[in-house]
Amino acid sequence: MILQMRSRLILLFALGWWLFIAPAALAHVQAGATHGFWHGLEHPLGGLDHLLAMVAVGLWAVELGGVALWAVPLAFIGVMTLGAIGGLVGLPLPLVEPAIIASDVIFGLLVLLGTRLPLYASAPLVGFLALFHGYAHGTEMPGDVSGWSYGLGFALATLGLNGLGLLAGEFIRRYCPPVTMRWAGGAILVGALYVVTQALGGG
């Protein structure tokens, strides 16, 4: 029963990626659309800092297993949405960019080290870091687009990236040596360190 639920969840995220994320991104590039949905959809996909964190959340959820498989990604998406609303209405939140970069490093280390935290610690940690990602999405929304459509776009993009991490993690868990997950965490961490150097260099 648990295996069937896990497989259905993975399939749901996979469908979300292939049916919504990839075709929509291509449509945006081809048509040059300026609608809020496309802006929101593209935003997480266009920034390495966001992309790394969202894929890493999926990887770590597989590492944690059990209820965390769905609870951790949902915590990320849910709190990220709240953060976006805060950014839209102009609520103050300090250290947004450093916190986003720190989240990449933290998630990379968690996967690299195979860290398993209980749900009462892992979900709040993921949610706290997601707050800053959401806030950045909210503050960077173009002023001439619909907030609802923009929010739907970046929520679907986040769902797809989390799902990509879940799919990769599940594939690694089933078909690869255990050390492969450590390599995946290392790749996330290398990407995070690249983001750090770009930020320090003003790139």
TrEMBL record:
Keywords: Membrane, Transmembrane, Transmembrane helix
Signal sequence region: none
Keyword Chloroplast included in the entry's annotation: no
Transcription keyword on record: no
UniProt cross-references to InterPro entries, sorted A to Z: HupE_UreJ (IPR007038)
Pfam families, sorted: HupE_UreJ (PF04955)
Transmembrane segments: 69-89, 119-136, 148-169, 181-201
Protein name per UniProt: HupE/UreJ protein
Name of the coding gene: ureJ-2
